[in-house]
Design brief:
The structure is a homodimer of 443-residue chains.
Chain A lengths: L2 E12 L4 E2 L2 E2 L3 E11 L4 E7 L2 H10 L11 H12 L16 H24 L3 H4 L7 E3 L2 E4 L44 H15 L4 E4 L5 H14 L5 E4 L6 H10 L6 E3 L5 H10 L4 E3 L9 H7 L4 E4 L7 H14 L2 E4 L6 H13 L26 E2 L2 E3 L12 H14 L6 H8 L11
Parallel strand pairs in A: 7-8, 8-9, 9-10, 10-11, 11-12, 12-13
Antiparallel strand pairs in A: 1-4, 2-3, 4-5, 6-15, 14-15
Helix pairs in contact in A: 2-3, 5-6, 7-8, 10-11
Chain lengths: 443, 443
């Protein structure tokens, strides 16, 4: 079996106005769907970011994959390296720790690796988890991922160029009306009360047993209030707070002291490894990160300084599932915890995360997922459901999910017409708050 | 497909009187052959140490494997852990860095994991290398592994109990005559001239392009002489010297200075991590080890201190092929080189090492192998040949080797009759040199 064709299809899904330390989610989240089509008709699936610079790199790699054996993931990496050279696609929003040529290579590699594993599994009639050593759990737990948010995106006429893209050919006015976005059911959340209501709604629906609050949006005291309110409302749910490096070291240490006993971990309170290490020495809870340990080059110094207690792996930029499992093995060796990070994603990524999470003995915390925020939109005919706060690990071959080609076409049409070509939370929020300035740390 | 039966068969193969820092190889080297027999008739093969304490642990695990899916290597580890508890089998000769419960678990896990991968490959019609990410090379290079040695073992009547085993039932006199050992063709090597002659003979036969000299036998000056003589005779072959921690730190630093420009690496010159780190700071060449980094617990401190530049992985005690690949990934992350260590072994282990070596981009040095010293004895019908100093990576399913049941029975009969139940190089040499004392460091 050889790969005959690699197809990259960008899609856009409605995204609610979720707030974070760098701005607000735009109305559309971009993803790219990877299909590796084999000469015998099998298709392997992968999913990754859909930003234009990343798409360009995916498309540079895709035609070089013809003839590759899907078991040859070492050969896949060689082809990716050859196609990319020293290319580096920027990580404009910076919420996953910036970019480097090494990280860019692994980020481009990832969806193709996942699609190769999907193909391997389909070919041999085994779920992907079996290719990763077999399941250590039948269900992978996820956390309720809470966001401060507006009730809805401001009206389109308030932001005449929702894509903020300099290329006028991509302006939606040139392409007809922007497709309608489904409203999200969660409403506004700009204080502790709103956050608790959001948690209750999400937990009622999905049964989550852990809660993560995206912070860095309001002054720290108000986010501590939200944590206290969550603890009161959900006394048994492990809680985490992630301000995306919005705080100084002293602020981080103060928040850590004030939330002692409340948090399972504090995630990326402050920028940079030195700051994280200083906070870690003074915080009563472990620090987690998906910002200072984001590629292999970051590991030796970070693990040497004991700056982090939990690494939030993300197969989308760690080079796929096998390399994420290697990361977990490194964490096991250094006695560092492992969980999984999430950006906006669809069901192929959820399936990939679930197979990986099922194979990692080291996964001691519930993983993050944006799934509830995509409000049922997907490219799959039957996305894996989240019930009791977890996803049942598929037993079907490969990832265990099937593409819905009508849905793929519809979400690709969204992409063509939405006008957004690169995620930019900061420019988006400035459409409505021109005084907004990106600052890290902010408090 | 499920495992129906796990069979452990100890074997003994003639071993030449190779000298090292703790004594002399006994006349028989012990190995254990693992067969995982599946309900559909497929058999997976593994190979490991055959010492009695290790055999006892293998046999404690074997009956617990019934019903295991060979893809479920995570489940295999759980079963091994359950069967062993905190068991620790001593590593009496100490040439691979002693033992710990963690290392013992991984050492017992290893042959079963290899046999599971063999089964997986046979089931899906793929060579094991494909289960490790695919081949990055078609041939895996090995080194000529030179030993100081006697021409032949002293006559049996000089050592009435060649097994040195306290159990009189195992004394060969109770079991009939000790089987004849084939003489090795290499003759005596107790000086530089003998070592060069041995190298020439081995390289003429196998085409090796790297040379490793086992040292720690003669005073360091004489081993330096041997290295200089090898350099003169083989100007283009990378050279290594491994005294198995026979030297003090000052001696190690002095030898390192005197061999500057001659050695690819210096292996385990001195005992312990602190000593290795001090030598590393003062040596012009990298230090390699299979004595201070021998299990995951050793890694963080060793890599933090930069005591070693090359880790000699050995899947026999790193928990099998996948965990050895994880070790290689850790080494890659820390910028540390990888090669492979060898004890006396047969063809199943050579096949396993070859599949692993073929899948590791990190393998930058030729691996060690004792294959020439087993003089053609094997449990396989067609052992993988070493030609041009390397082994062609099999393309047949699984490990790509087949058991020769007549040979297995014959080598098992050797085991039953040879009287040796545990490797003990020191007691063996003292039969002929009662004044010999084990000292580490010695010089």
């Amino acid at each position: 079996m050889r790969i005959h064709e690699a197809v990259v299809t960008p899609v856009a899904v409605p995204d609610p106005p979720l707030l974070n330390a760098v701005g607000a989610h735009q109305p559309w989240a971009l993803r790219a769907i990877i299909e590796l089509r084999c000469d015998d008709g099998l298709v392997g699936l992968g999913e990754t970011y859909g930003d234009e610079p990343h798409l360009r790199l995916l498309r540079r790699v895709a035609p070089t994959l013809t003839g590759l054996d899907p078991f040859d993931t070492n050969g896949l990496l060689r082809r990716v390296r050859t196609a990319l050279g020293d290319a580096d696609a920027p990580d404009r929003h910076g919420l996953t720790g910036g970019s480097s040529p090494q990280k860019t290579t692994l980020r481009v590699l990832s969806p193709f690796e996942v699609a190769c594993l999907d193909l391997q599994g389909r070919l041999i009639g085994r779920p992907v988890v079996d290719l990763l050593g077999g399941r250590v759990r039948d269900r992978v737990p996820y956390s309720a991922y809470l966001f401060h948010k507006w009730a809805a995106h401001p009206e389109p006429d308030l932001h005449p160029d929702p894509g903020l893209h300099p290329d006028p050919d991509l302006h939606p006015a040139r392409r007809g009306p922007v497709p309608r976005r489904a409203a999200d059911p969660y409403g506004e959340a700009l204080d502790a009360e709103g956050i608790v209501a959001q948690a209750r709604q999400m937990i009622d629906r999905y049964g989550f047993r852990s809660i993560k609050l995206k912070g860095g949006v309001l002054p720290p005291e108000r986010e501590i209030d939200a944590i206290r309110a969550l603890r009161a409302a959900f006394p048994d749910h492990p809680l985490r707070l992630d301000p995306n490096a919005a705080w100084t070291v002293p602020t981080s240490i103060r928040v850590a002291a004030e939330t002692e006993g409340l948090l399972e971990y504090l995630e990326d309170p402050t920028p940079g490894l030195a700051g994280m290490a200083e906070v870690a020495r003074n915080a009563p809870m472990p620090l987690a990160t998906n910002m200072v340990v984001v590629s292999p080059d970051d590991i030796p110094e970070a693990f040497g300084t004991r700056a982090v207690g939990v690494v939030l792996a993300d197969h989308h930029y760690w080079g796929g599932l096998r390399r994420s499992a290697e990361l977990a093995a490194i964490c096991r060796t250094w006695g560092i915890g492992v969980s999984m990070h999430s950006n906006s994603h669809l069901g192929i990524s959820l399936a990939a995360m679930t197979h990986l999470g099922a194979a990692l003995p080291e996964l001691t915390c519930a993983a993050d997922t944006h799934t509830p925020w995509q409000c049922g939109e997907d490219v799959l005919d039957e996305p894996l459901p989240i019930t009791d706060g977890s996803v049942l690990v598929p037993t079907a071959p490969g990832l265990g999910v099937r593409l819905d080609r009508d849905a793929l076409a519809r979400l690709h049409e969204n992409y063509l017409r939405c006008g957004i070509r690169e995620r930019d939370d900061t420019s988006y929020i400035r459409l409505f708050d021109p005084a907004y300035r990106m600052r890290r740390p902010r408090w």
